[in-house]
């Protein structure tokens, strides 16, 4: 879409250092990733398949696993768009304007990351639980929030809250806003400018933010475990289901279910490739 | 200046956010008004799923034959204390089947969900089946572990979970304490000394019973695992028949995992009859047989006699005899500053 | 003057300000206020006894120390990985790129179990490390490794988009003018990547402070030695002591907030320094 953005990319090797340095850096990076990511991943699949492929698929295809998959996808499908909208708004706000409380706002946005997952669940219990602030009112109206789907969604939204902002913000800051100002001065509306100028510029940040947010939403364990109630087939997400299988001495089953979540990495790959391909062919 | 469209969007987003929560709440609420099939929720602790899956299936069949209505029993499993907290905070359990009475006591103390004398409402302290604490050692018992004394020997490494976070570990701790106390003629100071030496041999404190089992079985750490008898059976039976064996100490504790009806919930949901019948069913011969099949010691004399060969005789003491009940022991041993904490933190004067 | 000029030009200030605070308030501040309210049910003396007990202090030291070490490791290697993924081509690059998100997708408990399996003394890594005299599982080193694992995507994924978007023109210009690659890196690239790097570091650090699931398996949980602060919160909850649990959590939260705020201020300062150079004013 921007003709200028392609030409430099091809020439980048010019300034990427001499070949030996290049290969050394690649080797170190790959060694690090190998130790920290690939080997653990292999271990997960080794465990998952230790009872054979048949047992692997049995564990994944049992009805309780399916309901866990559905719930996990549902929670992510609600949490990610909400955090995306908020993330874009907050990133725009923080990158483009100076106002009192800006640093406090940014820091508060980071806060859910440093809240222990256990506490992230507990705060919703303190709010919506039978003994919580809103508990009596909710009970009176027969509304179930915790130990039901809404609680799981809320906890997921909470723990994935900062991702999009945090991914979009640095890139929005790095790019400045001259183009937006130009578009606006040429008479484009605020929304048009945002959609056609800003969004394309920060698309990589948005993409990574959504991918991370999604991965974390599906993998979240601690906070969701506090608000879920663990009712089998009803309020168990995939990570919780994995834990339960483990506690029942079904180690292979637990890892089989967990390995399903790592398939997400492949989906990530596909999405990213697709976006890249679209960006280049546009 | 805000443009009108921006203001409209703000309003739309606002209402969306505000409406999202109650709307979701509405659609997920369990169908309370549905007349026909009855749904019960049993909130239980960790490794009891297979036991209750069997029990539920058998009971549901019986119930349907008798009443002509369908009965669905849902299960929830997790750490005993965490499960109790969930019920206190609003998880709609009809019945709870937990690892220790203290957790059910809290349903009364913190949640006013059940009467204080809940444990007297069902026979045998409301524990339809029992278990005890035993040792699991590596095949051939290379360190020649026979009894609690052997766990203090130098060079013996003992695996037990953290009693602060695991209900099962509290039974382990009290079993050791009770043994030492009995041996010293009721001297608690001697028992404390014994425990302190025992925990010098504990290299790792896993947060749960299952984690400790993994540490022992998969990581190859430790010479002895202190465990519930039924979990020891699970470990030696399924995972490592040729790797481990069970050693039964001379004296141990009678572990009584209790069950209770959650009065406030069943009365609100109108499920009292079914929930009570389910609890009674646990005490029937059929229920007792299933408990024995899943490695719990049956209460019924008749069924116990039938399975006597599976469960070795141990001299068992109860928590009430030695410690004056769960509340007392929780306070004395496991709450902050209790005897367990004193093992690790030098007491400030 | 500068800011008011901007505000006039760029739209959406009111909308985004309102939306941000509203959403933040509903999702984060309202629930967290409940936490502090619960803490206030303690008397000052009770609160102090809870949070200043030697065991709790030891746990705080461990949690914050291990989180810092893990975040530093991630900053160094994350920058390297991002650089390699953006700038170089090598076989299997797309796959490696996809794998970076794995630590988020894997449930933390599974990650903890897996890492413990690898590093315990009969594990793939552990047996070799043991031979060399290192013990990783059930020591603070194991905790740092678990925290590095769960925080790994942060730095890579915050730095990556910025690197992808940096105009190579500036670098090329610098190179043409005779700058060495190292000079190009330190003078041109590093300053523009710095905000993103700091941001990633902060996130990895913040996340590591509170982490529980992946750590409990590998830490061994020995009081005073390898007991992390979130574990103490759990033990409080096991005693049905919600107020004590929230007190420990509240202190952690307050300290994290102060640290995050400091980093954000630092970041704004570095950003401004960088921003003024290309002549924005």
TrEMBL record, chain A:
KW Repeat (keyword) present: no
Keyword tags: Cell inner membrane, Cell membrane, Membrane, Sulfate transport, Transmembrane, Transmembrane helix, Transport
Subcellular location: Cell inner membrane
Top-level taxon of origin: Bacteria
GO CC entries: plasma membrane
GO molecular function, one term: ABC-type sulfate transporter activity
Domain (ABC transmembrane type-1) ranges: 69-270
Residue ranges crossing the lipid bilayer per the database entry: 21-48, 68-93, 105-128, 143-165, 251-271
UniProt xrefs under NCBIfam families: 3a0106s02, permease_CysW
Role summary: Part of the ABC transporter complex CysAWTP (TC 3.A.1.6.1) involved in sulfate/thiosulfate import. Probably responsible for the translocation of the substrate across the membrane.
Self-association and partners: The complex is composed of two ATP-binding proteins (CysA), two transmembrane proteins (CysT and CysW) and a solute-binding protein (CysP).
Protein name from the UniProt record: Sulfate transport system permease protein CysW
Organism from which the protein derives: Archangium violaceum Cb vi76
From TrEMBL, chain B:
One record GO biological process: sulfate transmembrane transport
Record InterPro entries: Sulphate/thiosulphate_BS, Thiosulph/SO4-bd
A Gene Ontology molecular function term of the record: sulfur compound binding
Keywords for this protein: Periplasm, Signal, Transport
A GO CC term attached to the entry: periplasmic space
Family stated for the protein in its record: Belongs to the prokaryotic sulfate-binding protein family.
Matches recorded under NCBIfam families: 3a0106s03 (TIGR00971), PRK10752.1 (NF008022), PRK10852.1 (NF008106)
Protein name as it appears in the record: Sulfate transporter subunit
Lineage: Bacteria, Pseudomonadati, Myxococcota, Myxococcia, Myxococcales
TrEMBL record, chain C:
Cell location: Cell membrane
Membrane topology, from the record: Multi-pass membrane protein
Species, as recorded: Archangium violaceum Cb vi76
Phylogenetic placement of the source organism: Bacteria, Pseudomonadati, Myxococcota, Myxococcia, Myxococcales
GO MF, any single term: ABC-type sulfate transporter activity
Function of the protein: Part of the ABC transporter complex CysAWTP (TC 3.A.1.6.1) involved in sulfate/thiosulfate import. Probably responsible for the translocation of the substrate across the membrane. Part of the ABC transporter complex (TC 3.A.1.6.1) involved in sulfate/thiosulfate import.
Subunit field text: The complex is composed of two ATP-binding proteins (CysA), two transmembrane proteins (CysT and CysW) and a solute-binding protein (CysP).
GO cellular component terms, semicolon-separated: plasma membrane
Protein name: Sulfate transport system permease protein CysT
Pfam families: BPD_transp_1 (PF00528)
PANTHER family assigned to the protein according to its UniProt record, in alphabetical order: SULFATE TRANSPORT SYSTEM PERMEASE PROTEIN (PTHR30406), SULFATE TRANSPORT SYSTEM PERMEASE PROTEIN CYST (PTHR30406:SF8)
Transmembrane helix as UniProt keyword: yes
Family the entry assigns: Belongs to the binding-protein-dependent transport system permease family. CysTW subfamily.
Signal sequence region: none
Transmembrane domains' residue ranges: 12-37, 57-86, 98-120, 132-156, 188-209, 242-266
Domain ABC transmembrane type-1: 60-263
Stored CDD domains: TM_PBP2
Keyword annotations from UniProtKB, A to Z: Membrane, Sulfate transport, Transmembrane, Transmembrane helix, Transport
InterPro entries: CysT_permease, MetI-like, MetI-like_sf, Sulph_transpt2
Main location: membrane
């Amino acid at each position: 879409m921007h003709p200028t953005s392609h030409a430099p990319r091809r020439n980048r090797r010019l300034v990427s250092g001499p070949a030996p340095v290049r290969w050394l850096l690649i080797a170190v990076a790959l060694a690090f990733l190998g130790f920290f990511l690939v080997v653990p991943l292999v271990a997960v699949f080794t465990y998952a398949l230790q009872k054979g492929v048949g047992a692997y698929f049995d564990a994944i295809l049992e009805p309780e696993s399916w309901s866990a998959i559905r719930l996990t996808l549902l929670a992510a499908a609600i949490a990610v768009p909400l955090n995306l909208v908020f993330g874009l708004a907050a990133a725009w706000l923080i990158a483009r304007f100076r106002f009192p409380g800006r640093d406090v706002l940014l820091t508060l946005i980071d806060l859910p990351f440093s809240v222990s997952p256990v506490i992230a669940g507990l705060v919703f219990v303190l709010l919506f639980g039978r003994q919580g602030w809103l508990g009596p009112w909710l009970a009176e109206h027969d509304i179930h929030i915790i130990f039901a789907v809404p609680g799981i969604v809320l906890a997921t939204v909470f723990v994935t809250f900062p991702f999009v902002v945090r991914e979009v913000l640095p890139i929005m800051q790095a790019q400045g806003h001259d183009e937006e100002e130009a578009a606006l001065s040429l008479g484009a509306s605020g929304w048009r400018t945002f959609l056609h100028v800003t969004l394309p510029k920060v698309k990589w940040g948005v993409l990574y933010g959504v991918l991370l947010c999604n991965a974390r939403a599906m993998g979240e364990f601690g906070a969701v475990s506090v608000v879920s109630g663990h009712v089998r087939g009803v309020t168990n997400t995939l990570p919780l289901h994995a834990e339960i299988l483990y506690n029942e001495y079904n180690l292979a089953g637990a890892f089989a279910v967990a390995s399903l979540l790592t398939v997400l990495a492949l989906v990530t790959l596909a999405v990213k490739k697709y976006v890249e391909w679209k960006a280049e062919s546009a | 200046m805000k443009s009108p469209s921006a203001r409209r969007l703000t309003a739309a987003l606002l209402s969306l956010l505000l409406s999202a929560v109650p709307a979701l709440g509405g659609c997920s609420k369990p169908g309370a008004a549905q007349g026909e099939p009855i749904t019960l929720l049993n909130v239980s602790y960790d490794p009891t799923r297979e036991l209750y899956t069997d029990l539920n299936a058998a009971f549901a069949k019986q119930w349907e034959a008798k009443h002509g209505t369908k009965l669905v029993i849902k299960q929830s499993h997790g750490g005993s204390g965490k499960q109790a907290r969930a019920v206190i905070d609003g998880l709609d359990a009809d019945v709870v089947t937990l690892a220790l009475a203290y957790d059910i006591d809290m349903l009364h103390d913190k949640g006013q969900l059940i009467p204080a004398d809940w444990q007297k409402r069902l026979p045998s302290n409301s524990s339809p089946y029992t278990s005890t604490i035993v040792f699991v050692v590596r095949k051939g018992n290379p360190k020649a572990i026979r009894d609690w004394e052997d766990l203090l020997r130098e060079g013996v490494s003992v695996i037990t979970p953290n009693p602060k976070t695991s209900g099962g570990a509290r039974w382990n701790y009290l079993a050791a304490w009770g043994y030492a106390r009995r041996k010293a003629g009721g001297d608690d100071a001697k028992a404390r000394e014994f425990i302190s030496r025992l925990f010098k041999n504990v290299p790792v404190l896993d947060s749960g019973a299952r984690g400790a089992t993994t540490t022992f079985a998969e990581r190859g750490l430790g010479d002895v695992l202190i465990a519930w008898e039924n979990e020891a059976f699970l470990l030696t039976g399924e995972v490592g028949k040729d790797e481990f064996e069970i050693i039964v100490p001379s004296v141990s504790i009678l572990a009584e995992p209790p069950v209770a009806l959650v009065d406030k919930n069943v009365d609100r949901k109108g499920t009292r009859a079914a929930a009570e019948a389910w609890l009674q069913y646990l005490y029937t011969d059929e229920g007792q047989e299933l408990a024995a099949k899943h490695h719990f010691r049956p209460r019924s004399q008749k069924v116990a006699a039938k399975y006597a060969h599976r469960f070795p005789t141990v001299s068992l003491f109860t928590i009430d005899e030695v410690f004056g009940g769960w509340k007392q022991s929780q306070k004395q041993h496991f709450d902050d500053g209790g005897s367990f904490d004193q093992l690790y933190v030098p007491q400030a004067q | 003057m500068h800011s008011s000029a901007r505000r006039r030009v760029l739209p959406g200030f009111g909308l985004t300000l309102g939306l941000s605070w509203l959403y933040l308030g509903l999702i984060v501040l309202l629930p967290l206020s409940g936490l502090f309210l619960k803490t206030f049910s303690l008397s000052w003396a009770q609160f102090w006894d809870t949070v200043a007990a030697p065991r709790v202090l030891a746990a705080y030291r461990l949690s914050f120390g291990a989180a810092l070490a893990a975040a530093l490791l991630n900053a160094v290697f994350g920058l390297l990985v991002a650089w390699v993924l953006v700038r170089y081509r090598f076989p299997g690059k797309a796959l490696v790129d996809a794998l970076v998100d794995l630590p988020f997708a894997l449930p933390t408990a599974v990650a903890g179990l897996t890492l413990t399996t690898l590093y315990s003394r009969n594990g793939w890594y552990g047996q070799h490390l043991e031979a060399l005299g290192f013990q990783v599982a059930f020591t603070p080193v194991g905790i740092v490794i678990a925290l590095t694992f769960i925080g790994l995507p942060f730095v890579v994924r915050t730095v990556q988009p910025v690197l992808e978007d940096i105009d190579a023109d500036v670098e090329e210009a610098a190179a043409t003018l005779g700058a060495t690659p190292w000079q190009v890196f330190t003078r041109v690239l590093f300053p523009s990547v710095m905000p993103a790097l700091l941001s990633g570091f902060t996130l990895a650090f913040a996340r590591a402070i509170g982490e529980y699931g992946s750590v409990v398996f590998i830490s061994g949980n020995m009081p005073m030695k390898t007991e992390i602060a979130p574990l103490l919160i759990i033990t409080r909850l096991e005693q049905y002591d919600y107020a004590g649990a929230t007190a420990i959590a509240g202190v952690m939260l307050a300290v994290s907030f102060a640290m995050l705020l400091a980093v954000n201020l630092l970041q704004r300062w570095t950003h401004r320094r960088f921003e003024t150079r290309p002549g924005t004013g």
